[in-house]
Amino acid sequence: MIVVSDVELWAGSRLLLSGADLRVAPGDRVGLVGRNGAGKTTLTRTIAGEAAPASGTITRAGTIGYLAQDPRTGDVDVLARDRILAARGIDEAMTRMGKAEIDMMGATEEETDRALRRYAAAETEFTSQGGWAADAEATRIAGNLGLPERILGQPLRTLSGGQRRRVELARILFSGADTLLLDEPTNHLDADSIIWLRDRLRSWPGGFIVISHDEALLEATVTTVAHLDATRSTLDVYAMGWSAYRKQREVDERRRKRERANAEKKAAVLHTQADKMKATATKATAAANMARRADRLLAGLEAVRSSDKVAALRFPEPRPCGKVPLTAEGLSKSYGSLEVFTGVSLAIDRGSRVVVIGLNGAGKTTLLRMLAGVERPDSGEVIPGHGLRIGYYAQEHETLDRDRSVLENMRSAAPDLDDTRVRTVLGSFLFSGDDVAKPVSVLSGGEKTRLALATLVVSGANVLLLDEPTNNLDPASRQEVLGALRRYAGAVVLVTHDEDAVYALDPQRVVLLPDGDEDLWGQAYADLVALA
Ligand SMILES: Nc1ncnc2c1ncn2[C@@H]1O[C@H](COP(=O)(O)OP(=O)(O)OP(=O)(O)O)[C@@H](O)[C@H]1O
Ligand SMILES: [Mg+2]
To answer: Ligand 1 within 6 A of 449 CB?
Structure first.
């Protein structure tokens, strides 16, 4: 049970939220929505207790399972399985059992006896915590989230950001916490896992808050919608399901628009009046007051307008290049004994559109990283063609330098560009004024995505390698990305589980991983995308 009352939140010098109230009792399922950068993650972190509100109170009863939007860095040498089991303290008993087992082969009888007793004690504890059944349950949850047994045996250090987040999600679901706080849990999941998670949440006995831009998930799971309105800095709570909320909000917004129009009219009248009175000395003060009142009315309106803006996205004009700007021959990659793929060959023609599909772990991100030149294949090679310019969008935003500012990141992406142009591009991606001085590390998920896309725009790339470019984006920004994808004239290699992104790309070819087979695009593959 969580009770948020009269909470106020700030990000730097910007007020995010004031007077926020929210209750999450067992069985309450809350969807937290709002545009990118509205403060959803900040609010959730605060509820989780990782930050303090500027004012107001948050009371928590029971345990909380918090899935952060950015994969967390904890002890990275822990095995994935132990990380999950640790949520119920089972890992420790298991480790003790394992140690005792080894010691049982001790030299003296006495040593063996001691080890046996230790084993028995550890096993009792293990059993009381659910024992092998719990271990199997953890494995099952992980499997449903696209983490096979093989991955569970690896230390977190060796996992991708997406895999680490899935481990965290598995851990939280396994823990059986009373209240879940899930920040965009579907970002790194394939369609099967998303459907599984949806069902799991639907039957979750506790309460939860989920931040998501996935309407199907919201529709299926939530009973309350909390809308963080960035313009008014309020949290509007609607005690109803997703579709009802959509309708209600439309009504509310229409009403607000009407009020806005009225205020505008009133301000105009006040201004005219004030102008007339200004000339008369005795009425000057009254006139000034009147003008101020009108300005105040309008000031509120300006903010509303700017929030309606979405990033005006456009991918770069591709620089001229040869007929086949990028070729890959016989690419292979293994991690230890695990073969990700072997002998993948690929030729990217100028202006061609290719989509890569394959299940979680099939190596889609690995292939893109190799094509981008940030990872070396074990064998085979990537051959740049004449005039090749690559624009790489990485799923985890690792192309961005977290310690440097928005502006600095843009400058290093396009050193030749003058400041005015850089700022113009940033402006069209909704970074204005003080925003450009922010270090990347404080940006919201959607803002990072926008910045990474902005660095592509100034790059003049003629081959774009895009890894899940629509993750984290609010619906309006996502539509912009899809539009930009549709209009881009250069070549694109796309990895996504977003069906609409594939339709926007209108691909000619498909590469299937892990086999690396190539085929012409067809409807049959469209059905596969959501599954892959
Ligand atoms: N230390 C800071 N200094 C300045 N601004 C900050 C700081 N921390 C966060 N912000 C800003 O606060 C705003 C809210 O961020 P938050 O991550 O809560 O948004 P969000 O609603 O989760 O967005 P998204 O949907 O993109 O994940 C963003 O504009 C972010 O850049
Ligand atoms: Mg966020």
So the answer is: no
